[in-house]
Amino acid sequence: MREQLNRMQSNLLKDKxxxxxxxxxxxxxxxxxxxxxxxxxxxxxxxxxRDILINQEYEIEFDNSLHLLMISEMRGFxxxxxxxxxxxxxAKDQKKFITSDNPVAxxxxxxxxxxxxxxxxxxxxxxxxxxILVELADPSGSGKRSKKKEINDKEVWxxxxxxxxxxIRYCYSTxxxxxxxxxxxxxxxxxxxxxxxxxxxxxx
Length: 204
What we know:
The chain is α+β, with helices and mostly antiparallel strands. It contains 8 helices and 7 strands; from the N terminus they run αααααββββββαβαα. The radius of gyration is 23 Å and the shape is elongated.
């Protein structure tokens, strides 16, 4: 969700900057603005800058402020998560859970209809620590409201692949073993191919 919001912000700003740069008065106005700031640039430099804006050949990075604002403005959003069934997976063996710069991973059931599945029907995963992973599951399913279960290295690896798939730029781990496993896996499979990953998770 945060990645999507940041991408929307970036696309909006790039489109606005591209429109401004296409204005016939852009070079003269921008040159005058720089002069007021005590910055002098050649016409060639300004034209290069304008071309970059027009062609959108740059990246914009954001913090998570918009994401936090969205969550704070969504009344009842926390209740949606609290109302789900909470499962606590404990890494009992050698492998530990990783995390990333986008720590909440999501799993969608097979596609259904035009509107797809509600937030209740999706599964959400986030690591509390290297030893504990939380899963928020469909509240309408059978079983206890919350449960705790120890899982082996194979199961931890499956979850780490899913967590890595939702990372934006970085993954973090207590040691290199978990990250190397992901790197080795990614050499043979595309982490963003949902079909392959869903098959792995269904066996969980």
